[in-house]
Amino acid sequence: MAYYDYNGTITIDENAARADINRIQSAIPKLTAVSGILERMIQEGCSAQGETALAIVEKAGDLNRQVRQLTALLREESQLIQQTVARYQLLDQQVKQTIEAAQMPG
Questions:
Q1: Given phi > 0 = left and psi -120 to 50 = alpha, else beta, which region is 8?
Q2: Quick one: which H or E segment has residue 32?
Q3: CB 3 within 8 A of CB 12
Q4: What's the pLDDT tens digit per position in 83-104?
C-alpha cells in the first residue's frame, strides 16, 4: 500500500519499503561471511612473514572495517525503514478513525 500526502504525492510505498528491507536483510549474512573470510586472512597473514603478508593484513583489516561499517549502516537503515512504515501505518489508521468519527451521525 502506498501512503500519500495532502497533495496526493506518494510519501512512502509500503511494498517498495518491504522489498528494500528484504534486500538489506539478504545482504547482511553475505557481508558477515565476507567479514569472516577477511578475519581469517588477517590471522593467516599475521602468522606469515614479509612485506606481502604485512600488506595483506593491512588491506584485509581496512576492508573488514569497511564491511563491518556497511553492515551496521544497513542494519540501521532497515530499522529506520521499518519505523517509517510503522509511523505511516499509524497515521493512516488515525486518519481513518477521524474520518469515520466525522461521518457518524451525531
A1: left
A2: helix 14-47
A3: yes
A4: 989 988 888 888 888 888 888 8
Q: Identify residue 3 by its one-letter amino acid code.
A: Y
CA end-to-end span of the chain: 32
Q: What does residue 12 show for φ and ψ, rounded to 5 degrees?
A: -155, 135
Structure letter (DSSP) for residue 5:
-
pLDDT one-digit tens code per residue, 27-70 = 999 999 999 999 999 999 999 999 999 999 999 999 999 999 99
Radius of gyration over every alpha carbon of the chain, rounded to an integer in angstroms = 23
**53 CB burial (10 A radius; 0-12, 13-18, 19+):** middle
The cell for 48 is: 606469515
This prediction's pTM: 0.78
Grid coordinates in use for 14? 509500503
Helix 51-103, helix 14-47: angle, nearest 10 = 160
